[in-house]
Amino acid sequence: MTTDVKFVRLTLRNRVILNQFEQALKRGGSFEVIDSGSPQRPDLWIHELGRNQEEDVKRIQSLLNSDKTGDVFLTSETADPNLLVQAMRAGVKEFFPQPIDPFEVKAALERFKGRSEQAQQNTAPKQGRIISVVGSKGGVGATTIAVNLSVALAGKKSKPSVTLLDMNSFFGEIPLFLEIKPKFHWGEITKHIDRLDPSLLMNVLAKHETGIHVLPSPAYLNGHVAPTPEIMNKLLGMMKTMFDFIIVDGGQSLNSSALKVIELSDQLMLVTISSLPCLSNTNRLTKSLGDYNFIKKDRIKVVLNRYMKKNEISLRDAEEGIDQKIFWVIPNDYPTTMAAINNGKPLAQIAPRSAIAKTFAELAEQLGPEEEAVEKKRWRLFGR
What we know:
Elements: E1 6-11, H1 15-28, E2 31-34, E3 44-48, H2 53-65, E4 71-76, H3 81-90, E5 94-97, H4 102-122, E6 129-135, H5 142-154, E7 162-166, H6 174-178, H7 186-191, H8 198-204, E8 206-207, E9 213-215, H9 229-240, E10 245-251, H10 256-264, E11 267-272, H11 276-291, E12 300-307, H12 315-322, E13 328-331, H13 334-343, H14 347-350, H15 355-366
Helix pairs in contact: 1-4, 2-3, 5-15, 9-10
């Protein structure tokens, strides 16, 4: 049997019954009881039916349908046989009449562990790609690019799974860009890092209507434990087995955790604009990150944001200034971009036919399993 810890939630009013299940779980090994306020998704929920058993079963069915819980065991002093049939059809695995039989509980727990082990063997882990989006200086649009690239990736015909991390340590803006109100943030990961598993992670992530999952930064200063390089290594390693793409909004921070994220990234998108200070920063950052072996230089892709054809600095001048080719160009469309931000909508929703939304869709197509050459495509919309 698997030795992985299985998290169990107990909602049992009868103290004698509660004690019997606690003892059975203790004897069974590899079980940990969690309280009702924990963000951890239970692998097993053992519930005692109340007076309104029909409403209980409806709630259980809703939780099972939304994958908010794993297996469900029920117990009750009395139960309507028709209601039990309904519960079993909803997905309830076991029912224990009271008083309970310890041998039946032991056998049920063994069956549960067997199903869990089989499910783990049948689930092939993904080999996700980490793409970090970092601004060469403040205000160049790294969050805009991270958000809209994530949405564009999730919108591909192949329907890849995408998660978006906000590594801006405080007051990250991703929830505003997507008009979501997450229940949890970074603090839940750092607080429970010792028991982080896919179930806990999925319960902490917020899901947007476009299909992307979001891990926001804290909305206020609350004394939470900052994500350390060790935490980032564990978190991103787990995410790579769960998602096809992990997009990280790195902001402008280059602390030890941010550098660890860059080191782990398959690709770093370094965002710049056509200004001398920004291009100079881009050049220094590219050389520094490569020279100090945080990431190979060929994995650093410079993205030129807010491009205008009649800018005083030409594309050729910009490439000479940063001493490398520009990977992708995003046109300047201030009105559409600000309308999207102010409405809490990605560009693909608020202006799907706009040139800037199409640019993100094309960029997403370039980031498939086997990256195609983009030299011929990158200037198609704008000309050289």
